[in-house]
Each structure stands twice: as C-alpha cells, then as structure tokens.
C-alpha cells in the first residue's frame, strides 16, 4: 500500500493550494452566512415614518435558529423616545453564535431568500490591548492548541492544515507541543471547569505579546451547549461571555479581557478560515 501511494505521488504530483497568493478554493467553498435586508419582508414593514414605527411580521429564520444567532429587531432601532426614526443598525446575524447549520437559509428560501451562504471570511478582533507591541513573524509562527471541551470537529479542521493539500508548513506556521515556544494559543471547545486550571496554566506559560484565537462557536458563546444544563463539570458558555476568572470570583469579566483575542466562529470553521487568521497574525496585518 505504501508503494502505491508513493507511485501515485510521483506520477500525478502532490497538489497544494496556492492560497493566499490565489484564492484557489475548492468548488462550493463557503465560510459565512450573509443577510440581504433588501430582500427581507420585514424591511418594508419597518420603513415607518417619524410618527409610527413598523413591526416585524416574519420571524421564520429567527425562530428556526437553534442558537438564537438571529435578531430581526436589529434591522432598525429608535433613535430616541420623541422621534421614532428608522435607522439601519445591522447585526441581524450574530456570527459568534452562528453554528453554520443552514436552518435559517432553508426557512427563508421559500419566503424571500434573504439569507444565503457566502465566501467572505467571518472573523472579528475582540480585543487588542497589546496591539502596539505586536510582533511581525517574518520567518515562522508557532501555535499551541488546547481543547477545553470540544466534540472534535474543530480539531479535524486544524489537523487538515498539516496535510499536503493545505501544507501550512510552507507558510512558516507550525504546531508546537510546548506553550513556552508558542506565539498563538488556539482554543477549541466549550470552557469546562475541569479544563479551567489547565487552560490558564498554558496561557500563563506563553510569552507576551501573544494572540489567543478562539475557534468555533463553542469557544465563543457555548454554541449548541450555551442553553444546556450546566453541571458541576462544566460551564454552559464560551470564553467570551463567561464570568469565571482565574481566581474563580464572579467579576462579570471575561478571563481574556487583557489579551489579544481573535474570534473565528461557526461549527466548525474550515481550514481556509483558520489559515487566513494565522497568516494575518504572522504578517502583522491586524490593525
């Protein structure tokens, strides 16, 4: 069998993607969910005058979402109590809560088709307290991965970066077992109590300046587990909206308040999205 794969490799060659020089994504590549408010039935209802504010009539996508990532009230808002003026606010789909299940797309397809898949990368910078001291990694970037309570889906996407198709090593990005040599902490899974001490121990051993990349909706908000019963062994929330701190006191603060944090949502994000974020960190492109 080993001979067969060696022969196949020599005969046909090993194809690695040219990303990021070229966006040579595979057919059907999708990485985000877009909302076209011009197609939404509620857009017409909400274009009220200064005297009367419209109301939301279609809630199919919002009711179908299992993680409550859609809030149609964010289409428009009142500026003040005296003048009711409709103003676009955006934020209809909370990417951090979106698990990329596509249920909302199916619910809207026969109504208005206002929601669809997109190829745009979906990530956001949560905090950058050390942005001025950020490194530019000209030669290599070392990444430490920690699973704080994952189902394994995000890990499979991270492992794919090591195969010949993506080959992140050609870009100078490497996975390291030691936090002392890491530049980035890659976090997957819900933030469970049993992994809390281990997580903070790993984080404390990574030298500053450092980046923390939260992979998947579970690490951000809890994903499908956010509203589940949280027992003694775990939290029912992700790191971004968790109130537990290193000392265990409830200060209503995220434990990553003073870290450079990048959030990469969905369930799970594909290898191209993960690679894109790591390359932005490596090249110092986060402003």
Set out the fold topology.
Layout: H1 2-12, E1 32-35, H2 41-45, H3 60-64, E2 76-77, E3 87-88, H4 103-109, E4 115-118, E5 124-127, E6 141-147, H5 153-160, E7 173-175, E8 184-188, H6 193-204, E9 211-215, H7 216-220, E10 260-264, H8 271-282
Can you give a write-up of this model?
With 287 residues, the chain is of the alpha/beta class. It has 2 domains: 32-118, Alpha-Beta Plaits; 124-282, Rossmann fold. The protein is 23% helix and 14% strand. It has 8 helices and 10 strands. It has helices at residues 2-12, 41-45, 60-64, 103-109, 153-160, 193-204, 216-220, 271-282; strands at 32-35, 76-77, 87-88, 115-118, 124-127, 141-147, 173-175, 184-188, 211-215, 260-264. The protein has a 6-stranded mixed sheet. Strand 8 (184-188), helix 6 (193-204) and strand 9 (211-215) form a beta-alpha-beta unit. The chain is globular and about 60 Å long. Residues 48-53, 78-90, 231-236 and 243-253 have low confidence and may be disordered.
List keywords for this structure.
287 residues; alpha/beta; Alpha-Beta Plaits; Rossmann fold; six-stranded mixed sheet; two-stranded antiparallel ribbon; 23% helix
């Amino acid at each position: 069998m080993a001979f067969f794969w060696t022969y196949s490799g020599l005969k046909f060659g090993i194809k690695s993607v040219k990303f990021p020089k070229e966006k040579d994504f595979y057919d059907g590549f999708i990485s985000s969910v877009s909302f076209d408010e011009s197609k939404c039935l509620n857009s017409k209802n909400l274009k009220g005058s200064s005297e009367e504010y419209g109301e939301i009539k279609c809630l199919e996508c919002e009711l179908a979402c299992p993680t409550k990532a859609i809030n149609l009230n964010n289409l428009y808002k009142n500026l003040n109590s005296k003048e009711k003026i409709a103003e676009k606010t955006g934020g209809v789909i909370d990417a951090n809560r979106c698990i990329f299940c596509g249920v909302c797309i199916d619910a809207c397809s026969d109504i208005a088709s206002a929601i669809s898949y997109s190829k745009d990368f979906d990530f956001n910078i949560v905090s950058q307290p050390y942005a001025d001291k950020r490194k530019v990694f000209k030669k290599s970037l070392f990444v430490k991965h920690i699973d704080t309570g994952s189902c394994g889906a995000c890990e499979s996407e991270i492992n794919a970066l090591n195969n010949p198709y993506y080959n992140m090593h050609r870009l100078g990005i490497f996975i390291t077992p030691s936090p002392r040599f890491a530049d980035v902490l890659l976090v997957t899974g819900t933030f469970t109590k049993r992994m809390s001490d281990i997580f903070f121990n790993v984080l404390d051993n990574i030298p500053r300046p450092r980046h923390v990349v939260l992979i998947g909706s579970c690490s951000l908000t809890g994903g499908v587990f956010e509203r589940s019963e949280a027992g003694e062994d775990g939290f029912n929330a992700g790191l971004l909206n968790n109130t537990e701190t290193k000392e265990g006191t409830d200060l209503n603060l995220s434990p990553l308040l003073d870290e450079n944090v990048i959030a990469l949502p969905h369930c799970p994000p594909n290898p191209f999205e993960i690679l894109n974020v790591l390359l932005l960190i490596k090249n110092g492109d986060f402003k």
